């Protein structure tokens, strides 16, 4: 089969598209013929050696896939050959086939196309976990989403609305804000044209922000950290700006809010039951139309470097998908 191979930590252009042996399905696993693959910002960090996880070489990146089950490993009873599913691979997703733990695979409703399904797991599941388990977001609270036109930002906008929040989208262009508005954002802030800190402080009659979903870091994080309401929750999702901010902890003390880390990958390992319960709820929302994956562009697997560049350069409005 064809797969993307990382033989050393290097720029994404040095990834290889080559023939490798087909995976062998193990006990408790299923073998998928992959139909679509979600591309995520951490994938680009991973292959450059900039992510928390550093797999041994050679490895294939790619954590979320849609596909059709072609074989069942020993002991797998709840799935069947020929079934359309989505799966959390962790690694090995940028390929034509993958063997996955059967407990991390879910049947796919016929109403969800493969391209959208492949982009559902990571971005939407991260946003869902962040807002549900980490922030305990309540109806009527104010939710600020930075990078609100990207894959996980749009997911947070949609899920925040589904959970009953007033959603504030923060983006760098009007085009991106328009996309966030179309996905449910109530208030729009263009931080390239206005002072983000000042705009945030106007929220809730000057009381500040209940929950921030920050994927950007850098100056955006700094502005948010000074604009939180009492009992607020500032969620640390990622650092798409490339700058990991330094947090003055006295702000949390004086203003009485929490800074909460969100590492969805660890959540899936530490709380697999809660993860699957979240996915069931997400699927229900998807079928009802409350959430949707917006596919920006689809690339063939051989053009993985181009796909990763689009994501890493923050040019994406929604999700980028790879097709084997």
UniProtKB/TrEMBL annotation:
InterPro entries: ADH-like_C (IPR013149), ADH-like_N (IPR013154), ER (IPR020843), GroES-like_sf (IPR011032), NAD(P)-bd_dom_sf (IPR036291), Zn-ADH-like_protein (IPR051397). Residues 10-322 form the Enoyl reductase (ER) domain. Coiled coil: none annotated. GO terms for molecular function: oxidoreductase activity. This is NADPH:quinone oxidoreductase family protein.
